[in-house]
């Protein structure tokens, strides 16, 4: 069977607009959206007007900024309920959150990014740049590195050929060789770490979720750096590996 082609340029433009809005909680102006999707303002406005009519997006009439609309929120909630990985992992991740009292994230790979499916908040003070439906780079995050570690050499070669390892913080690994060494270690030890590489002063310990050799997703524990000492790190690492094993046993 030949490669399936996408049909409908308006649908593709609408998806591009939604992708842009997804990562900006403060919304975007017409100019910002048109530049982000690389379309003229007139074309972008036509698509936006149609999307607004269907409830896919909404516009704040005071500052003329666009946001994800109520229709997409409803679709997103239905998709979350239907996605079996969330249902299967929820009891185990809830227990992990209770034991650690830290923020727990669940994500999958989509278009070479980590997309958040679930987030269980810590009751302790911590601000994380993450939200359900949002995304982050794979090379700089513990969930992303856990997913990358399960890829074949050819898949990794393709990933590195198409993705620049830009420095998001002073701790971000920007060397392919250095990251490859770390990925091999992650593969052996069954957990991944990220020390302020994606967000300053936040430490994440994560692991992939695998069923019959197929990587379904990953989860992580996010902790402010000031709360992480050697004992805490070892405890969370042990709990992450244990949770990974428990989840994979029921898949």
UniProtKB/TrEMBL annotation:
PROSITE patterns per the UniProt record, alphabetical: HTH_ICLR, ICLR_ED
InterPro entries per record: GAF-like_dom_sf, HTH_MetabolicPath_Reg, Tscrpt_reg_IclR_C, Tscrpt_reg_IclR_N, WH-like_DNA-bd_sf, WH_DNA-bd_sf
Domain HTH iclR-type span(s) in chain numbering: 8-70
Listed GO MF terms: DNA binding; DNA-binding transcription factor activity
Top-level taxon of the source organism: Bacteria
Gene Ontology BP terms: negative regulation of DNA-templated transcription
Domain IclR-ED: residue ranges: 71-251
DNA repair listed as a keyword: no
Pfam families reported in the protein's UniProt record: HTH_IclR, IclR_C
Keywords: DNA-binding, Transcription, Transcription regulation
Protein name as it appears in the record: IclR family transcriptional regulator
Organism: Pediococcus stilesii
